[in-house]
Amino acid sequence: MPPRVAEVTSRPNGEPLVRLSGVNKWFGDLHVLQDIDLEIARGEVVVVIGPSGSGKSTLCRAINRLESIQQGEITIDSQKLPEEGKALAGLRADVGMVFQSFNLFAHKTVLENVTLGPVKVRKKSAADAEKRAKELLDRVGVGNQADKYPAQLSGGQQQRVAIARALAMDPKVMLFDEPTSALDPEMINEVLDVMVGLARDGMTMVVVTHEMGFARKAANRVVFMDGGRIVESAEPETFFTNPTSDRAKDFLSKIL
Ligand code: ADP
Ligand code: MG
């Protein structure tokens, strides 16, 4: 059995914003998350990489409780993830999620996509939600698309709307699961640039991506997963220039 990797990170004082301890999850017989210990500090940007099927998406989905876990504990801002109900909705709202496939509401305008959650879940007034939505749409560079429908936008624009929609909930942490994998190459940077901006503004982020440029530019730490385990955890420069495990070396030789 491979050794567990101890988390060694310099971070500000205080409790980690996100903490996974002893997390195990199975899909039937498949042990998809194995003894995951991971702490993410406020303002930290963690890039998660690893081969397909290594459990990266499941890890993200466990953090906002789209997937349950069978063992271990996950806390957000010192609060344990509840099983269900109102408390879960509240805590899930603290965790913004951006998927590979945009997942915008097709029959709502861009503006409505961004105001819906704040009005329904955060109980903001329509006027407040709209004001904030417009600011966020400007911030991600699609302020002039507010009245369009998602299908009228390019993939890069849709993904930036999805980021604005997640930010509108005022999340404590943002999870990105391969946010640029479904995009045409010329649109990748417009999305990554928004994410780099968020990172620089101090957002706590977990980003599953194979975009090594982003990792080098914005990540405090790279976590390498394989076979449901965290195999390596290091600063980007260290990880890319001097990976310690054979599995990480092999993986990097294929993608770099
Ligand atoms: P990654 O995102 O790293 O590609 P995933 O977390 O999506 O990996 O998947 C990890 C493993 O769990 C894979 O073997 C995948 O087939 C399996 N898996 C993912 N979701 C389910 C599910 N809902 N039911 C059964 N197996 C699943
Ligand atoms: Mg995945």
Task: Write up what this structure looks like.
- It is built from nine helices and ten strands.
- The protein is α/β, with parallel strands linked by helices and 256 residues long.
- The chain has a six-stranded mixed β-sheet, with helices on both faces. Strands 2-1-4-5 form a four-stranded antiparallel β-sheet, with helices on one face.
- The longest helix has 16 residues.
- The protein starts with 17 loop residues before the first strand and ends with a helix.
Q: Based on the structure, what is the oligomeric state of the protein chains?
A: single chain
Per DSSP, the total helix count is 9
N-to-C order of helices and strands: EEEHEEHEHHHEHEHEEHH
Question: What composes the largest sheet?
Answer: 6 strands, mixed
Main sheet strand line-up: 6-7-8-3-9-10
Ligands (ions, cofactors included): adenosine-5'-diphosphate, magnesium ion
Pfam families: ABC_tran (PF00005)
Protein name: ABC-type polar-amino-acid transporter
EC number: 7.4.2.1
Subcellular location: Cell membrane
What labels describe this entry?
256 residues, ATP binding, binds adenosine-5'-diphosphate, alpha/beta, binds magnesium ion, 23% strand, 6-stranded mixed sheet
